[in-house]
Amino acid sequence: MTTAGGASYAAAGVSIEAGDRAVELMKEWVEKARRPEVVGGIGGFAGLFDASALKRFERPLLATSADGVGTKVAIAQAMDVHDTIGYDLVGMLVDDLVVCGAEPLFLTDYIACGQVVPERIAGIVKGIAAACAEAGTALLGGETAEHPGLLDPDEYDVAGSTTGVVEADRLLGADLVLPGDAVIAMASSGLHSNGYSLVRHVLLRPADQGGPGWSLDREVPELGGRLGETLLTPTRLYTLPCLALAERLDVHAMSHVTGGGLAANLARVVPESVSVRVDRSSWTRPAVFDVVADVGDVAQAQLEEALNIGVGMVALVAPDDADAAVRLLREHGIDAWVAGDVADAGVHGPGGSVTLTGSHG
Known about the structure:
It comes from Aeromicrobium halocynthiae. Its EC number is 6.3.3.1. 31% of the residues lie in helices and 24% in strands. It is α+β, with helices and mostly antiparallel strands. A six-stranded mixed sheet has the order 10-12-7-13-11-14, sandwiched between helices. The protein has a four-stranded mixed sheet with strand order 3-6-4-5, with helices on one face.
């Protein structure tokens, strides 16, 4: 038996026309995120990148990363603000490459949604493209998939992958880290894109479920405005400043502070021959982290395990270059400071460990 008028893709909840309209709206923004090596435009089955650009390298190592934004997208959806979440996606991708000294070349995105609303999809891509342009990365292509029945009409998720390149003899990593190296901390812009399951649980859980019953439009004096605006603050991009740092100074390793927090992520680039100390008193923890801790009665260890506590990127540099590193990063608009030091294994803790000491100012 067939229904009146017969079945169709549109009747199943997928609109080809809306998808085409979304592509037209996003073309303007994608064009802003080009590099000279990009061949053709969007709309094909694959993005093309002229690999002859790699001839300038003696031994090019390709680096790749894939990631998403996580539950921060729930904040964007609730606030109906979609042109900033792209910064979070790009930040999670390209700055994972930068830690090994790689220059991100191109990025592709994937947007899954319950219903294609062209203006909303274009807004997401606008943010992705703007962030790519800031990071010097080409937005090479992507995919928008409509999944009615799997996602509600106003729901979506974003993910992506990126590819970069680094000269083999310029590769950064744990094998370069030495006792005496300085820990250079770079300020985060806020929560970035990690720990939002904890943050939403603490701040947005209804009162009848044991939460504070806060709404996203709540004015929070400690935050200087509405809660939702603070939670939606885009992830800071460290790409070009960190590439400049690695190019000009004696940088040994870098760590992108994402899920797992400062100590765990920094430990990923620390060899067993050394131990690292990071002094909390070297920076003031931003207010949003204090609000989460106070409202949810979150222990410091739990907070530091889930959130970046104000440090989004770390570089381990030769001691003689510590002051120059801070100056260079500040010249690039990144607040930075010496936050600790590297010593032989056993001085600050077991080999390969990162220890947080002191209290925030």
